[in-house]
Amino acid sequence: xxxxxxxxxxxxxxxxxxxxxxxxxxxxxxxxxxxxxxxxxxxxxxxxxxxxxxxxxxxxxxxxxxxxxxxxxxxxxxxxxxxxxxxxxxxxxxxxxxxxxxxxxxxxxxxxxxxxxxxxxxxxxxxxxxxxxxxxxxxxxxxxxxxxxxxxxxxxxxxxxxxxxxxxxxxxxxxxxxxxxxxxxxxxxxxxxxxxxxxxxxx
Length: 203
Hints:
The protein is an alpha+beta fold. The chain has 2 domains: 3-70, 434 Repressor (Amino-terminal Domain) (Orthogonal Bundle); 91-199, no CATH class. Helix content is 62%, strand content 9%. The protein has a 5-stranded antiparallel beta sheet with strand order 2-1-5-4-3, with no helix packed on it. Strand 3 and strand 4 form a beta hairpin. Helix 2 (21-28) crosses helix 3 (32-39) and helix 6 (75-121) packs antiparallel against helix 7.
């Protein structure tokens, strides 16, 4: 999607409805700075307010995402293109989140192991040794909780029995036995326990 084009379209539609940025922002209960960012192509409206925004601007979501008015005969084609583009954006964000999990988790695990190694091999007082090991364990556990949260939010888990794809709760994910990103959980669709692999898309 072309954010610059969409931004100019939002500005044009807003003016057509006789609204200032501040007036539109007030109706949407957001800051006028957010509206300004949309109109300059620096960001896109959040999906949670897209429908309300479209209603205020007298356009539909496909027109908003396309950055132009859509003729009836091309509506379905452009709708499919917009849905595909949105899906690709979601997939890319999920991929970035999973990469972030690695970038956060791996250095913390290595640092924790190094600290434990130093505490075990270097001569020091018992109190300092225990303190270093406790610090390393606490750091690894904290980062592990954060990493699981990132993994849980990115994409879906696919049941190996019925192939339903779903997002479990944080604690279901955290407490599940796992091999890498494949976790042993109960499927909410078929009710069976199985190792469920992480996938990026819903279908």
